[in-house]
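Report of the visiting student (M.T.), summer placement. My assignment was to run the structure pipeline on a short list of targets and document each run. The first record concerns Glycerate kinase.
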Amino acid sequence: MNQWLGWILALAALAVGYVQHGWQGALMGLTVVAFWLLLQFNRAVRVMRNANRAPVGHVDSAVMLNAKLKPGMRMLDIVSLTRSLGQRLDGGGERWVWRDAGGARVEVEMKGGRCSRWSLAREDDVA
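After the run finished, the structure tokens were exported:
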């Protein structure tokens, strides 16, 4: 979701609550916003806890990861797909790589916190 849309929805919940039910409605709107933020935080912690159990930069199948990637995906979505943190590549920009046991690897380039492009390289292609 767009960051600005989230803030607009949060303010709308507060405003609608206040207009319809006064200060109790505004308090209810604030409670709903806080609950939504807790749900988002819980999701991020759960994804990171699952990624902690796997080796850095490892994925079961790089080909399947390549097929599931879409432009605009957030890093949190990619980490939940791979169940592993990516290994950061040296050089400019935010580039991350995941490898599988067969030697195939997927390089993902992030811009603005979202996936802009990615490429699949197999062991045969590298040699």
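The radius of gyration is 20 Å. The chain has a mean pLDDT of 89. I thank the supervising group for their guidance throughout the placement.
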